[in-house]
Amino acid sequence: MKSKAIVFTGVRQIELREVTLKPLSSTDVLVETWWSSISTGTEKMAFNGLIPSPPFIYPFIPGYETVGKITEVGAHVNRELIGRYAYIAGSFGYEGVNAAFGGASQFVACPVESLTVLEGIENPQCGIALPLGATALHIVDLAAVKGKKVLVLGQGAVGLLAAELAKLMGAALVAATEPSQNRLRHSPADIRINPDTEDVMAALAGHEFDVLIDSTGIMSAIDTGLRFLKFHGQVIFGGYYQRMNIDYSQAFQKELSFIAAKQWAKGDLERVRKLIAEGRLNTEKIFTHHHPVDDAITDAYMQAFNDPDCMKMILTWKKEAEEGGTPCHTAPKP
């Protein structure tokens, strides 16, 4: 079967081309993509050739934030899934092209166990938020935030959701720093600081935090944040870093602990689906930009990678997907 797909063909090179899907196995499903999204972390690094290791070997299909409708199922898959919307984290089901992680395709063939059916989410586009929400949830779980004071660096999509989830999970206080005023105004944090216009040291004077969550990757920002951690405080690295270069004296003097959050844990995608469906987690505010999948697809990636006001670029694969949607949840907020 043929499919239109976004392909990274080389360093800083993107094409919209036809690819071939592998035949469905008995436990696979075929999904027609309605929406996918652009990762401004992993995909930006891969676009710039900064992850020269599998699966990021050119040419490859990017994408791990994809929502679509199930159109076909293998012989051993429940046929009642046909016609339902699901989130998929990508696919390796292509011939002649690599996948990292293969979600940016008009049609995606993947194992049924990799699906998260979007039960209870009225607007299925909101399923795009599942991987970011699950990543943020895993970060917050690692931090064990209940009753703690939490400082979040960066209010991009993951940082913003981490701040919201920290409050939901019982943090005593959440503070956040973010140089983009447009992003900062969406933040649910109790204390919000713009380091470009405010003195962070003055704004946080008198505060000692139990946990520092970084979603910036900026070493100078982390160095500043370390000064506000208490003795035996904890640092959670919430992104992907090529190298670490931080002030070790702070770690030494305070006996700090450092944890790298790789991705979400088993069950986190379903937990986030439930939080969205129940109206307890607001993910709609991260969907700031939309772009159709057409010959100008490179423009969409450039805006996603370089525009600080673009928190999450949603790519629409079908004309119907471009229409405005309803809120993500069906249940009223408690």
UniProtKB/TrEMBL annotation:
Alphabetical keyword list: Oxidoreductase
The keyword Nucleotide-binding appears for this protein: no
Residues annotated as transmembrane: none
GO molecular function: bacteriochlorophyllide-a dehydrogenase activity
InterPro entries to which the protein is assigned, alphabetical: ADH-like_C, BchC, GroES-like_sf, NAD(P)-bd_dom_sf
Domain Alcohol dehydrogenase-like C-terminal positions: 157-261
Name used for this protein in its record: Chlorophyll synthesis pathway protein BchC
Originating organism: Pelodictyon luteolum
